[in-house]
Amino acid sequence: MRKGEVKVTILGSGTSTGVPTIGCPCEVCRSPSPFNKRTRASILLSHIENGTNLVIDTSPDFRAQVLRHDVTHLEYALFTHTHADHCHGLDDLRAFYFWSRKPVDCWIRKDHAKDFRARFSYVFSDTGYLGTAPQIKLHAISAGHFKAGGYDIELIKLPHGTETTSAFRLGPFAYATDFKSFPPEAIEKWKGKLEVFVASGVQFKEHRTHSSVPETIELFRQLEVKRGIITHLSHAIDYERDSRNLPSFAEYAYDGLQFTVEI
Ligand SMILES: [Zn+2]
Ligand SMILES: [Zn+2]
Ligand SMILES: [Zn+2]
Questions:
Q1: Model pTM greater than 0.90?
Q2: Cα dihedral sign for 22, 27, 28, 30?
Q3: For 111-120, what is each residue's pLDDT tens digit?
Q4: Which of 66, 71, 132, 208 is the most exposed place for a label (fewest CB within 10 A)?
Q5: What's the domain count of the chain?
């Protein structure tokens, strides 16, 4: 495994609608706190030594997110699944090609690739002009270990309603979003291995296709996570009010949260 320091940026910490939710009069949606303003879920990994950038998912808010963090180049993208809130910012990869003249290497699970190609058929057809479509190179992957952008990554498949989602582990760091639960074999795989784990927990109440906040905290316990960061948050969570009730090893994500990990 390659050793290197990586800066992780939470580009977006919100559930599929984002927070505020359009038209919602609730206290969190109307809150002036920047910690309650959540764009759709995505993270950026910037390798400190070699300067490469990797994103997990390209949310519909991708353009605003990369502008906010002055991301001027992007080499790699991993996709967790094909729901709109995780990949519909794909078109905005176009701009990176103007400067780099290199396609962005993208990794997605084999069984997600068909839907991905259908959603973005124009990306995979020859338009005759490179500027009209994002220039990407799609790599199909399966559960298990694979290499991407020089990283050794472990992919595990998790249930998400009628779908499944891909969770990624890079050494002691992992990102898992849009899962209902971790099956026992997934717990076995990652138990004791995670120093920092960013995982979704959409609301306090049980959800049909997502892990709830209490379930995600219990998952951190089971996996013996040192620092658990809960993301993909809905308007049920008020950052300041609800942070007080978290155990010491858990915290809520917010847009722009940054930390470094040794991978
Ligand atoms: Zn989602
Ligand atoms: Zn609301
Ligand atoms: Zn989803």
A1: yes
A2: positive
A3: 999 999 999 9
A4: 208
A5: 1
